[in-house]
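Re: the request from the purification team.
They wanted to know what the chain is likely to look like in 3D before they choose a buffer screen. I agreed to run a prediction and write the result into the notebook, where they can find it.
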Amino acid sequence: MSLTISEQIARRGQGKAPSQLNEQRVPIYGDKATATSETRPLTWRLAHHDAVLDLATYESLKGFTGLKEALSKSPKDVGNMIKAANVRGRGGAGFNAGLKWMFMSPPDGLPRYLICNADEMEPGTFKDRLLMERLPFQLIEGMLITAHAIGATDGYIFIRGEYIVAAERLVAAINECLANNLMGNNILGSDFSFNLHVHTGAGRYICGEETALINCLEGRRANPRTKPPFPQISGAWGRPTVVNNVETLCNMPAILNHGVDWYQSLANIKGTSKTPGTKLFGCSGLVNDPGLWELPFGYTAREIIEELAGGMKDGKTLKAWLPGGASTDFLTADHLDVVVDFDSIQEAGSRMGTGLIMVVDEAQDMVPLLRNLEIFFQRESCGWCTPCRDGLPWGVKLLTAINDGEGQLGDVEKLEGLTRDLWIGKTFCAHAPGAMEPLMSAIKYFRPEFDQKIAQAVGVDVIDAAANQQPVAK
């Protein structure tokens, strides 16, 4: 079934994707017997309710007990708990959130900020949307706990502009918290005061970079800033600022409720990973049952793709997969038994990123696939630094020529050169290196597909890549 333009516009107005995906069953939580606050701390409430959108229901499901526990402790003790728990950033970087908080300047009586990065624009990623649309109070509680720990006076949820329903539900939840002394001055009778605001973005992928996000929040052009100083020292409006991802912040209430040892023990459920806690993993593409699943770390890509996502659709064979969004390196069917966690995926030659797998089937030509990805990254470049501004369009031009039958000998070498020239340390931020990850891995694993198109363009049977793309005569 295809949708008309008017139907697509109507769906966007409702905060829905203009496709049929929203109508598919999305398996997430497990049954009520197994989904508890200790086994599925992020999504267990959704085993009992489709969404938790009012304060009374949230409080009946252990809502704000984590905040009350946090307020009974000093900010330093709460920060030390999160640091000891080793909550690794769920936005893709995987840095210890509690350690990140420790870099913040000491309180001086002036404003300090906490920003939730909800600008979920990584292609193939849709986990934060679920948490905000269906569990807005959980994110707010996580932000209140974090704000108490770092001494923040004000907070902002910087949310992707297309997430209309999520923004509306967050605003409604904030207003209900304000009316019940869970926001504002002297929260729950304590000396802790905090105000929270929802700020909708205007649609720029670069705002996923925390300093570009801060610039945009301030009303400036969304360009990254030079580091140092880091935001913890000089962030929003020149004041100490912490930026955390939605899923990262949603971990805080459960840790305050159940403790550090419990959080770390979740890694023992599978026994194949040392990463504590759970993660919202997902899978999209030509699988039978795309969706999201909250899992402890330790599951392999094979288990996620073949068991949870139901395997490839009939007649389709897995060719490659991206572990966590478009800006990660491709892995192949040979890597299916790799555990999907930060360290194991890195050892396999990629990054876990957001943990939402995108599959590619054997029928998919890698050259146009890469061209589409690089067009996205080219368009989303802020243009601040020359390698990214000029290098990404050059990559698109080369890929377009190869795909259109106009490739030349040496084009693949030029693409390989770009992956080196636009790599980490040679650009102002990580946007261009992220764009190079799928490109370099596609050339690494699927070079013959590039060479075959060039061979057809120059009129030879085959190209010898080992001999620097020298043609082999017919």
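For the purification team: DSSP finds 18 helices and eleven strands in the chain.
Please add any questions underneath this entry.
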